[in-house]
């Protein structure tokens, strides 16, 4: 392969950087092969075998594309996104990677690139045929699965690149998107993060001129897409995407530059989508002018390479025929393997939600196979009295800080990041002192971009680290919903367990501190409704430390919600030593016989006060339960309590509609209705937005509301 010096010399006048501003960027396209196959400039430093390999991979990608389109038409596979016309782009940029070292993070139209990278074509068919097993990346291939949300993969690529850089693995990550993808926030946030951290990542933009039915000119007013790199502090290159040699050389330049620690590059591959957007709709292709299609047909990347090879005497008609016969056999074999695949068992849909199926999932699995058992808890909860060395007067913020310190000292893979978490220690000072102790490589501030904070979480986790992402406030998580719900939660399932976005998403939640709008929300129901996530809410310092330690050791992504109202109080003695508390297990705080009151987080204060008043004034004995983990619920503890008391009140500050309380009540009614002596009640925030300071107390559940609800249940 070419030396970087050789390629750099060819590309020197085509790189778009700050000095290019004001130039006619439209004339800066890097090209080596004219449509008639004539070479521009010196001979490439590629052997005959390497040139033939590029040609063969393009042919293979084209033929696979055609066969997959046919299979989709025959409904042997589902919707397929064709890449006809883009083979030079994809084969060109993939050929610049070192497969044993570098990562590829593709988009859904990259079948030619995936196959060239070593991904089995039958597995691509398996995926498009409706089996997630097709995206279980084989061992030895450093590739991420394709995803549906456009450009959502770009932050993942940056996260992987950051992980590789932190681990000093000297790897480069290449990720791709289309011209339409450059309009997404994920694109801009990913480029910004890559520039800030000088991540070893190459952004390949396959500008095929159309985003479904919308022309490239409608995506941006920029003269080129490559010039967008300049705004983020690194170089861009505009390349003839139908010229496989130019695509290879430009990518090699960017890859080797990144490998030398010189930061990212954006490459715009100027090409054309010769077919429809997908086989699910054909209208978009009919909207193109016939003259436009005819003009691009003349620039066909495969014909261009054939003409070049033939003009140099590198490809005889006999050799061309032999290559095409080999490809036909290869494709036929892949189709045969796909058709021979067994339909997945229904229980497999449950097997890759968490590292082990929860109680609820085991119950649902029994509909298909009755032999599966719940694995139980693998962590035993310690007794606080068993610890000899205690730190006195610890609040929740200090307890979380203690857990982070101890776990970071124990496991060097843990990294803490977010807005102002470094020297500032976070807006609530939870991460105070961690950067001084563990350094900026492991505790680092990020740009103000919540979606990308969640996006790099995925890449850091896949790259072998344990990310701890802090969001400053509850309402700021909404900007990151797509990444959290579509990718962090789904990565294990999407790859059938091959990759897992383990780690902890931390944020303060709830009202009680007179904060502005979006600073007092309780968004737990959104997270609880999402398969793949576990949601933990501590109510006291002792639990906060033990639960966070468990969360950092879990093989699942954990949403760790910290009640901001309780950051400073209550205070209690907390063990200096490491300890863990099982995630998924509730705690019975007081035993009682007359009524069960269930709550979590900040509302445990009011629940405790209500239980005390019920006993003192009305002689009503309350069994008080702190859920601690609100997804998955500890059904066993709930049902056991209700079977004893026959009554239940559930308390939380989030809105009542479709909240955690509704799930608790539904579970109790499904499993213990015959033990109920009265209808269950919920005491929650009202179904409004959390009001500002002057009405905040009126919104929150109070001791009086809880007592009145309990009395109505007991006196039913």
Features:
7-stranded mixed beta sheet; alpha/beta; Rossmann fold; 6-stranded mixed beta sheet; 3 domains; 716 residues; 22 strands
N-to-C terminal Cα separation, in Å? 82 Å
Strand order of the largest sheet: 11-10-12-13-15-14-20
Helical segment tally? 27
CATH architecture of the largest domain: 3-Layer(aba) Sandwich
Topology diagram in text:
Blueprint: H1 4-11, E1 15-16, H2 48-73, H3 87-94, E2 103-105, H4 111-116, H5 121-128, H6 153-166, E3 173-178, H7 185-197, E4 201-207, E5 210-211, E6 214-215, H8 228-231, E7 235-240, H9 244-259, E8 265-270, H10 283-286, H11 290-297, H12 301-311, H13 317-340, H14 348-351, H15 359-365, E9 390-394, H16 396-410, E10 414-418, H17 434-438, E11 443-445, H18 450-462, E12 466-470, H19 481-488, H20 491-494, E13 503-509, H21 524-528, E14 534-536, H22 541-553, E15 557-563, E16 572-575, E17 587-590, E18 595-599, H23 604-618, E19 622-626, E20 629-631, H24 635-645, E21 648-655, H25 660-672, E22 681-685, H26 693-699, H27 703-714
Parallel strand pairs: 2-3, 3-4, 4-8, 7-8, 10-11, 10-12, 12-13, 13-15, 14-15, 18-19, 18-21, 21-22
Antiparallel strand pairs: 1-7, 5-6, 9-16, 14-20, 17-19
Helix pairs in contact: 1-9, 2-3, 2-12, 2-13, 3-9, 5-13, 6-7, 6-18, 7-18, 16-22, 18-19, 23-27, 24-25
């Amino acid at each position: 392969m070419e030396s970087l010096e050789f390629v750099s010399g060819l590309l020197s006048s085509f790189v778009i950087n700050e000095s290019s501003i004001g130039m006619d960027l439209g004339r800066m396209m890097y090209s080596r092969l004219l449509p008639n196959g004539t070479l521009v400039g010196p001979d490439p430093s590629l052997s005959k075998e390497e040139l033939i390999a590029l040609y063969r991979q393009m042919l293979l990608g084209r033929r696979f594309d055609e066969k997959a389109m046919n299979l989709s038409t025959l409904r042997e596979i589902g919707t397929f996104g064709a890449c006809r016309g883009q083979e030079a782009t994809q084969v060109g940029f993939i050929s610049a990677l070192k497969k044993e070292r570098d990562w590829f993070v593709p988009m859904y139209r990259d079948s030619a690139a995936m196959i060239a990278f070593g991904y089995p074509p039958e597995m691509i068919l398996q995926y498009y045929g409706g089996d997630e097993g097709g995206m279980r990346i084989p061992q030895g291939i450093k590739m991420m699965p394709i995803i549906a949300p456009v450009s959502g993969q770009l932050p993942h690529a940056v996260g992987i690149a950051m992980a590789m850089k932190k681990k000093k693995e000297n790897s480069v990550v290449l990720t791709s998107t289309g011209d339409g993808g450059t309009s997404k926030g994920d694109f801009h946030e990913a480029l910004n993060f890559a520039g800030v951290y000088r991540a070893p990542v190459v952004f390949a933009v396959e500008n095929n001129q159309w985003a479904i039915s919308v022309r490239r000119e409608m995506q941006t007013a920029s003269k080129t897409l490559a010039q967008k790199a300049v705004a983020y502090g690194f170089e861009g290159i505009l390349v003839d995407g139908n010229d496989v040699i130019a695509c290879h050389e430009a990518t090699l330049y960017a890859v080797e530059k990144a490998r030398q620690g010189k930061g990212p590059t954006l490459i715009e591959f100027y090409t054309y989508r010769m077919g429809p957007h997908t086989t699910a709709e054909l209208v978009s292709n009919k909207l193109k002018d016939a003259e436009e299609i005819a003009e691009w047909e003349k620039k066909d990347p495969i014909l261009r390479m054939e003409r070049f090879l033939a003009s140099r005497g590198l490809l005889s008609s006999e050799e061309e025929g032999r290559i095409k016969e080999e490809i036909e056999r290869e494709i036929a074999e892949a189709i045969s393997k796909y058709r021979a695949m067994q339909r997945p068992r229904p229980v497999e849909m449950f097997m890759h939600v968490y590292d082990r199926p929860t109680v609820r999932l085991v119950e649902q699995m029994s509909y298909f196979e009755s032999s599966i058992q719940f694995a139980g808890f693998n962590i035993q909860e310690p007794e606080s009295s068993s610890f000899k060395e205690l730190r006195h007067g610890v609040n929740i913020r200090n307890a979380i800080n203690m857990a982070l310190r101890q776990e970071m000292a124990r496991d060097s893979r843990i990294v803490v990041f977010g807005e102002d978490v470094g020297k500032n220690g976070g807006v609530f000072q939870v991460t105070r002192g961690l950067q001084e102790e563990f350094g900026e490589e492991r505790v680092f501030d990020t740009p103000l971009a919540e979606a990308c904070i969640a996006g790099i979480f995925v890449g850091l986790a896949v790259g072998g680290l344990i990310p701890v992402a802090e969001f400053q406030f509850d309402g700021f998580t909404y900007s990151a919903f797509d990444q959290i719900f579509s990718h962090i939660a789904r990565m294990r399932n999407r790859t059938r367990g091959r990759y897992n976005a383990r780690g902890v998403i931390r944020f303060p939640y709830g009202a009680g501190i007179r904060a502005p709008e979006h600073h007092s929300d309780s968004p737990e129901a959104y997270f609880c409704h999402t398969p793949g996530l576990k949601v933990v809410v501590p109510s006291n310092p002792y639990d906060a430390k033990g639960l966070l330690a468990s969360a950092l050791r879990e093989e699942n992504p954990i949403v760790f919600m910290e009640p901001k109202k309780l950051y400073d109080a209550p205070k209690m003695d907390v063990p200096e030593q490491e300890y863990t508390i099982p995630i998924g297990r509730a705690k019975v705080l007081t035993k009682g016989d007359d009524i069960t009151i269930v709550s979590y987080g900040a509302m445990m204060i009011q629940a405790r006060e209500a239980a005390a008043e019920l006993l003192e004034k009305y002689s009503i004995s309350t069994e008080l339960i702190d859920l601690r983990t609100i997804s998955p619920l500890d059904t066993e503890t709930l049902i056991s309590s209700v079977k004893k008391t026959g009554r239940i009140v559930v308390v939380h500050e989030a809105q009542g509609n479709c909240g955690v309380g509704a799930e608790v009540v539904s579970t109790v009614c499904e499993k213990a209705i015959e033990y109920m002596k009265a209808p269950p009640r919920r005491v929650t925030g009202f179904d409004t937005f959390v009001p500002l300071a002057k009405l905040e107390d009126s919104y929150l559940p109070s001791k009086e509301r809880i007592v009145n609800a309990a009395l109505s249940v007991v006196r039913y």
